[in-house]
Amino acid sequence: MSAEVPEGASAEEQKEMEDKVTSPEKAEEAKLKARYPHLGQKPGGSDFLRKRLQKGQKYFDSGDYNMAKAKMKNKQLPTAAPDKTEVTGDHIPTPQDLPQRKPSLVTSKLAG
Amino acid sequence: MFLKFSLRSVFNGAGGGNDIQWCFSQVKGAVDDDVAEDIISTVEFNHSGELLATGDKGGRVVIFQQEQENKIQSHSRGEYNVYSTFQSHEPEFDYLKSLEIEEKINKIRWLPQKNAAQFLLSTNDKTIKLWKISERDKRPEGYNLKEEDGRYRDPTTVTTLRVPVFRPMDLMVEASPRRIFANAHTYHINSISINSDYETYLSADDLRINLWHLEITDRSFNIVDIKPANMEELTEVITAAEFHPNSCNTFVYSSSKGTIRLCDMRASALCDRHSKLFEEPEDPSNRSFFSEIISSISDVKFSHSGRYMMTRDYLSVKIWDLNMENRPVETYQVHEYLRSKLCSLYENDCIFDKFECCWNGSDSVVMTGSYNNFFRMFDRNTKRDITLEASRENNKPRTVLKPRKVCASGKRKKDEISVDSLDFNKKILHTAWHPKENIIAVATTNNLYIFQDKVN
């Protein structure tokens, strides 16, 4: 977890070593922040957790569904934002997308 | 008491993970098919090791049984063959909450055997089921009022009476759901654990832990609730929970912040206040965006002895002594070379992968999975570790597995694999170790591998 610094080195020597050997984690963090400048300030905080708790949420809007069914060619389907803090549902379901929730009738291949 | 400890250390020697030569034994599953339903989501041996259960994303359970050893030809221990398979859970939709409920089996836990039948608990995100698996090897024949094919006979045609008798039949293994424990979890169940009293068990979701009695399905006691009054203040969730193997009043739960809390049910009805808090201090100057994410504990397992517990976070496995809360007693790096790849692992979501870990029967070796279908074993006594691969390329029985090595940087030696060549889609999240012998079950995405140590 912490950068490899030999025990017994004085405080100044340790700081020097750490400056030279950039923590790989911090280097990765810099890379991420460069790609996603708007990434939430709170590291790994509530956003991830809320997204985790909302897993499985499938919102259905009958108006959108009917419009998609009527094949409105001009309708712009919003794309999923690259921003990882977005937690809302990410696309409008079309008839093909609605999952046919049938139980699995096929025997597991592990038993084959 | 002292005698017990010295006996234990004598037996520990023969079983070290690296004195063992692991050999391929069996592989189950399709070769090429990539069907989502086939993704294995849990693997568990029963208490004797005779049975091995798997659960998958399609809600199915497959149970394998070890065949009795052939005394004459003991090249290897018995093979595992299909014993029973059934659909445990089905997909559901909660219309009230607009919530899709996956049928994926998150965990299977076996009950100790009490009679001829076997019992296991299986759970998806919302519902836990108790399944009874029983054998039928004889059937009654010679009814007076029924034909052999089941049709009823006209009573007026019966002229003589006979006594029905049991006749042997081909073995039939039947699975039936005996209890359904539903509607107790608002959030997604991540763990179930059977108490050492064999009467109660706990189920844990992201924010709450409930205590059940195996006989009672309409009631459950909430024993931990970490839901904040205002959800905006949510900072951590429960990631795993387990009962102590011997003390029926003790359980632990781990969090997304890398802490483990030990709770004593004798202290109060609601165990929101822990008895012990296990947390390794962190150097604040090392903190990064990724620190909390990679410290999230994906699995917690007590040792068989009950003295230690093991936790798995993204990069390491830690062994904690229950008597020491301020730091683990042992830390093993699973794939430290990934620390310099965290940015891409965050982008492809791999950083959120939940790896499990397990102990061997004597608590001397621990095992966990990694990427590229690699899995790792750490011998606590010799401090040696080994990396092995679950691959169909090594699938001749009794072929000794060759150790693998990942080259983190610099010049790659022959037979080493570089970090950039690792396949992050091939993850080994679930592994299990036979409770008594050196037999391990390793699940790749949709295949189950069984390895054994080389006999004689």
From TrEMBL, chain A:
Residues 12-32 have a biased composition (Basic and acidic residues). Residues 1-55, 71-112 are annotated as: Disordered. GO terms for molecular function: protein phosphatase inhibitor activity. It comes from the Eukaryota. It is found in: Cytoplasm. InterPro entries: Endosulphine (IPR006760). Keywords: Cell cycle, Cell division, Cytoplasm, Mitosis, Phosphoprotein, Protein phosphatase inhibitor. Protein phosphatase inhibitor that specifically inhibits protein phosphatase 2A (PP2A) during mitosis. Interacts (when phosphorylated at Ser-62) with PPP2R2D. Interacts with SNCA. Interacts with PPP2R2A; the interaction is direct and this interaction inhibits PP2A activity. Belongs to the endosulfine family. This is cAMP-regulated phosphoprotein 19.
TrEMBL record, chain B:
It comes from the Eukaryota. This is Serine/threonine-protein phosphatase 2A 55 kDa regulatory subunit B alpha isoform isoform X2.
